[in-house]
Amino acid sequence: MYRILEEFRLSRCERCRCEPNREVYCSISDCPAPHCVNPTYEPNHCCPVCYTGPNCFVGDRVISAGERVEIDEQTVCYCTYRDGTWQMQPHATCEQRPLPDPDLNHVPNPSPSEPPGEDETKQMDRDFRPRLDWIP
């Protein structure tokens, strides 16, 4: 039996109170979704806590929001960020980057004993085109 105006918990998320009319009213805490894939549930606290900050999975690895992980030469993965908040997608977004085209960056190699002639230097200048679309 509870005293009038006494507050008590039925669980870590459910609080109750014995009112003056001897009725018991309970409320259940509404926790926001955690912004991580590895929240900690503390004893005597209802809502989980993300001690490591927002994060997501790349395979079985947990990465922090804002970190970009290169899976291979073409694949980069990251936690999704949209509308100013970290979206609660448990798995990272992965994108394919195009490999550089070796023909676009090919510069003729003059023989080491002779410096390139004027015509060869002009040709090398025309062949060089920076690849801005390949920058991660």
How does this structure look, described?
It holds the Pfam family VWC2L_C. This is VWC2L C-terminal domain-containing protein. The protein is mostly beta strands. Among the domains are: 30 residues, no CATH class; 64 residues, no CATH class. 7% of the residues lie in helices and 27% in strands. The strands form four sheets. It has a three-stranded antiparallel beta sheet with strand order 1-2-3, with no helix packed on it. The chain has a three-stranded antiparallel beta sheet with strand order 6-7-10, with no helix packed on it. Strands 4-5 form a two-stranded antiparallel ribbon. The protein is rod-shaped and about 85 Å long. The C terminus is likely disordered.
Strand line-up in the sheet with most strands: 1-2-3
Shape: rod-shaped
Q: Specify the biggest β-sheet.
A: 3 strands, antiparallel
End-to-end distance: 66 Å
Number of helical regions: 1
Structural class: mainly beta
Could you give the order of the helices and strands?
Answer: EEEEEEEEEEH
Q: Which stretches of 5+ consecutive residues score pLDDT under 50? A: 121-136
Average pLDDT confidence is 77
Strand content: 25-35%
Query: Percent helix among the residues?
Result: under 10%
Number of strands: 10
Radius of gyration: 30 Å
Region (Disordered): 93-136
Biased composition (Basic and acidic residues): 119-136
Pfam family, one: VWC2L_2nd
Protein name: VWC2L C-terminal domain-containing protein
For the structure shown, list the relevant keywords.
27% strand, 10 strands, mainly beta, three-stranded antiparallel beta sheet
